[in-house]
Amino acid sequence: MKRTPLLILLLALVVLLTAGCKKDDNPASSVGGAIPVEFVGTWTPQSATVNGAPTPVATALEFVQGAVSARYLFNANGTFTYSELNGTGTVLYSNGGTFSVTGQAFAVSVTTENGQPVNPPVALNGTWAITGNQFVMSYQAGGSALVVTMTK
Asked: Residue 110's domain is classified under what CATH number?
């Protein structure tokens, strides 16, 4: 008879410990394409490398003439916009589309360029890592390995 209260107490402890555990201890490693919260937002490229060599951001991202900065806007619904801006903040070039995230990998489908459809869409795949407010994207484009470091 004394076993019953002890078993109930142990069962209650197991239930409490299980309820206190998080389902996902590392939200940055999303599963099944869910967009991690830290991925969402506006990111500004700060530095870049092409094939391992430090390269000005404007050169690595092939800015249009007159552009002095760029920004990526990643939305929680899996859409994105990339914009290149002049010194007054006017958008000189943009493209957009959809993206998905699985673990530390991402896939992008560029479906518009300067408001016009891109047919067929351009696909890019790569990896990402976020530490604090620093976002590092690595991907292949035009036969080159690019690494772009951005901040919010």
From this structure: 2.40.128.20
Q: Which residues are within 8 A (CB) of 66 and not within 5 positions of it... i.e. 6 or more apart?
A: 86, 92
Q: Total domain count for the chain?
A: 1
Q: For the segment 25-84, what is each residue's pLDDT rounded down to a tens digit?
A: 444 333 345 899 999 999 999 999 999 999 999 999 999 999 999 999 999 999 999 999
Cα-Cα end-to-end distance for the chain: 62
Measured between alpha carbons, how far is 128 from 23 in angstroms, rounded to an integer? 22
Amino acid code (one letter) for 150: M
> Residues 23, 25, 31, 33: is their CA dihedral positive or negative?
positive
Domain span holding position 68: 26-151
- Cis peptide leading into residue 5 (ω within 30°): no
Tokens 């078993």, residue? 7
pTM of the model: 0.77
Residue 102: strand pairing partners: 105
Task: Assign 19 to helix, strand or coil.
Answer: helix
User: What single letter denotes the amino acid at residue 57?
Assistant: V
Asked if residue 69 lies in contact with residue 44, where contact means CB atoms within 8 angstroms, the answer is yes
Q: Report DSSP state, residue 37.
A: G
